[in-house]
Design brief:
The protein is an all-beta fold. The radius of gyration is 13 Å and the shape is globular. Helices cover about 0% and strands about 50% of the residues. It has no helices and 10 strands. The strands form 2 sheets. The chain has a 6-stranded mixed beta sheet with strand order 2-10-9-4-5-6, with no helix packed on it. Strands 1-3-8-7 form a 4-stranded antiparallel beta sheet, with no helix packed on it.
């Protein structure tokens, strides 16, 4: 059974930082590209950061220079370090393989940035 469990969200002031974690089980983690996605109220879910099995990274323009995605294959965990948070980063954040598979969506973790 595949499980992706996100954690680390919370309420933070504008300019603050958070580190999200996603523990993955049920797949060969090291062979999969992974992504962090987010969905803000009234908006479609979007990919914000991705990391290949080899460690290459890509970011949405809106988070470039502020967010950093990383992975620890020994722990089957992918991380998202979020710095200089803005009000518009408020969303539910999810991890998934990249490209995403519908059956892998978890509960996500809420990130709320107060202005």
């Amino acid at each position: 059974q595949v499980q992706l469990v996100e954690s680390g969200g919370g309420l933070v002031q504008s300019g603050g930082s958070l580190r999200l974690s996603c523990a993955v089980s049920g797949i060969i983690f090291s062979l999969n590209a992974m992504g962090w996605y987010r969905q803000a109220p009234g908006k479609q879910r979007e990919l914000v950061a991705a990391i290949s099995s080899g460690g290459n990274t890509n970011y949405a323009d809106s988070v470039k220079g502020r967010f950093t995605i990383s992975r620890d294959n020994a722990k089957n965990t992918v991380y998202l370090q979020m710095n200089s948070l803005k009000f518009e980063d408020t969303a539910v954040y999810y991890c998934n393989v990249q490209p995403a598979l519908v059956r892998f969506w978890g509960q996500g973790t809420q990130v709320t940035v107060s202005s």
